[in-house]
Amino acid sequence: MNDLGLGTQYPIIQAPMNWVTDAKLVAAVSNAGGLGVLGTNAGQREVTPNPKQVEARMTAEIQKTKALTSRPFGINILTPGDGRALATSPYTIAMLKAAFAEGLRHFVVVGQAHQETFDLIKQHHGMVIFRPLTPSVQEAQLAEQLGADIIVATGHDEGGVLPNREAGTFTVVPEFVDAVSVPVFAAGGINDHRAVKAVQALGAVGVYVGTRFLATEEAPVADNVKQLIVDTPSQATVMVSGNQRAIATPQAQVYAETYAETHDTSASNRQIGRDGGLRESMLLGHLDHGIITVNNGIGTIKQIQSVHEVIESFFE
Ligand SMILES: Cc1cc2nc3c(=O)[nH]c(=O)nc-3n(C[C@H](O)[C@H](O)[C@H](O)COP(=O)(O)O)c2cc1C
């Protein structure tokens, strides 16, 4: 066991990913010695219409995960932006309610450091694993003051919605390590054991990994998408908006061309969302809708493997 309070064998947290981190993947990660984390829309195929349904569906997914593992696992909590009160984010409240009622202890909180959210989690004896969406030293220090137990330093190398600061993992990790005294985990472009060793050399005590888990047997990602991740070289990605990178499918290239003309990130992201976003493309495998978002080093992902094989290979 590592001594970070995670209760895991290895210092690895599976990053929550909208639509594609369900009970099966999360339990596989926890059973293999990491911390699995349920993301938003975990286990769903259709959009959930309201917060009440989110609470009910998330409760069911937590129970399903518990049936598959006796090890700890966590849940993704997105904080309200711009210092708004928690009451303005009914979907976040629904996720918290489900997690508290089921006695979860590991909360992967993403966004801005948010006192009300941190306090509520602490009142429920939870651990705050905080990932600032935009990684700055000030935000990391504020999170530590507010009680974060672990802080994740994310480089622009990552998959998903990118930080608006274009600093790579090699820049952000040592900055955070110098700035805070709580353990720092590294995120962004960590696809194999060499990257694990590299971020450990920078002072990170653990890794926070998303993209690599997409190409695993247990991930609820469409088979054609898993294969595409394995077959695509790193340079065959495009920016489909100012903060989203995607594999350069013909559809992604259409988004990229529009974005290159307009430079309007919000409009591009809205269009991608209207077309089905990650659900249509990554979950259902409809490559002519939405995008496949990945990190900028997918060329090093060469095989679809089991979660157990991936985690063992990271710490070989
Ligand atoms: C397909 C995909 C979906 C993501 N969805 C979310 C999300 O819903 N919430 C979140 O906090 N981060 C999300 N992220 C970001 C990851 O949690 C994590 O920061 C990132 O994957 C780490 O970098 P890596 O992909 O290079 O391993 C997503 C990333 C990917 C690749």
From TrEMBL:
Q: What is the lineage of its organism?
A: Bacteria, Bacillati, Bacillota, Bacilli, Lactobacillales
What PANTHER family would the database entry show? 2-NITROPROPANE DIOXYGENASE (PTHR32332)
Protein name as it appears in the record: Probable nitronate monooxygenase
What InterPro entries does the record tag this protein with? Aldolase_TIM, NMO
Per UniProt, which keywords does this protein have?
Answer: Flavoprotein, FMN, Oxidoreductase
Q: What does this protein do?
A: Nitronate monooxygenase that uses molecular oxygen to catalyze the oxidative denitrification of alkyl nitronates. Acts on propionate 3-nitronate (P3N), the presumed physiological substrate. Probably functions in the detoxification of P3N, a metabolic poison produced by plants and fungi as a defense mechanism.
Q: What are the protein's GO molecular function terms?
A: nitronate monooxygenase activity
SUPFAM superfamilies, alphabetized: Inosine monophosphate dehydrogenase (IMPDH)
